[in-house]
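User: Could you write out the 3D structure of this protein bound to PBG? I've included everything you need below.
Assistant: Certainly. Input first, then the structure.
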Amino acid sequence: MDLPIRPRRNRKSPGLRALTRETVLCPGDFVLPLFLHDLEVDEVIPSMPGCKRWSLDGMVNEAGEALSVGVTAVVLFPAIDHSLKTKRGEECFNREGLVQRAIRALKSAYPELVVMTDVALDPYSIDGHDGILEEGEILNDETVGILCKQAVSQAEAGADIIAPSDMMDGRIGALRGALDLAGYQKVSICSYTAKYASAYYGPFRGALGSAPKSGDKKSYQMDPSNRREALRELSLDQDEGADIVMVKPAGAYLDIISDVRQHTTLPVAAYQVSGEYLMIKSASAEGWICEESVMMESLIAIKRAGADVILTYFAKEAAKILKE
Ligand code: PBG
């Protein structure tokens, strides 16, 4: 054939492929989510193979292992004892609460570790909702008031980044104001900007016992059918002072990641959630797919779509492969 243009020329050897590669992952892209509980032992989570509910010591050890493979950030999710759950989730701003103790333990063991915390009421709420539920409704402004206390108490314990995952309106501005007023101007906000009402969160809720007791989260999390609405949330979060904006879930929402990337100069994060992780884990446990390859491909796709930061349960495994 008389073909002057042959794209395959750029693919002919590993060296050429490396030179022409457009997207490269590195361990520093990842944030490792850690589940914790207030017990002395680490507990296997059957619905999340490879993940554990950590004791404080186990969590510190796990964070150390993450650091040793180049993963410099973790995000904390607590399983709260049922006896501490209330309608308004006041335990979330207890100075001696599980998350607050965990932050202090991590920062004293590894001052360089970036500690990110979840801001939302669901682990603390007797109703299993991210906000205060009253007569079948999630109260927006009252919830934001409590989230401000939660964030300030996490900042006081030493959190570097607070990450509101609750989807209440106006919370980024309110959180920024509350943090600044309390003297935490240096604490960053990573907003769950476009968080969809997704069935992919199922295994996570099982791991924390935080599933809603009634109803669903569709009156605050976004409708998976909506694309433009993500940009509306983005512009609000930017104006209210978010430092990083997140899309969640990741794999089924690559178009949203790409849209957000194109409409902001802020760093974009994406959360490869529990259901995404579990689909890869379970299919590979059956021998139907190659775990390592699909894992790396799923992560590169998220980065290629425009994410700078990836929250993933694969953080340690993927970082190890990248280091080899
Ligand atoms: C709740 C929260 C959820 C996740 C992170 N924070 C679940 C939910 O919104 O119901 C899900 C993460 C995952 O599935 O891995 N504030």
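The chain has a mean pLDDT of 97.
User: Perfect, thank you.
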